[in-house]
Amino acid sequence: QVQLVESGGGLVQAGGSLRLSCTASGRTFSGYNMGWFRQAPGKEREFVAAISWRLSSTAYADSVSGRFTISRDNAKNTVYLQMNSLKPDDTAVYYCAGRARATIAREAYDYDYWGQGTQVTVSS
Asked: What is the separation of C-alpha 38 from the centre of its chain, rounded to a whole number of angstroms?
């Protein structure tokens, strides 16, 4: 079993930046492909970014490509989401997810473990 805890959310003005962190505990972090998803009020949970455990592969949603960067530090059991040039449309609860399989994925149902989420609010 893997436990995931997100942090780093908050309130920021449009154009600003935030860095989210997700720390894993319970089992070895290595070997898990990790992803970030978000869910805005009244909307479905959507894919944001993913990274393979060997760092060789990343994937981004078109809406965040060029503004967000996913990274990980396996020694610290932590995955990050650097969010720059934030827009009001980025407002959502952001979730970290882990996948114990060989490839990264963009669908929420492909992930095995989830954090509780952290709120990101971008004001205009």
From this structure: 8
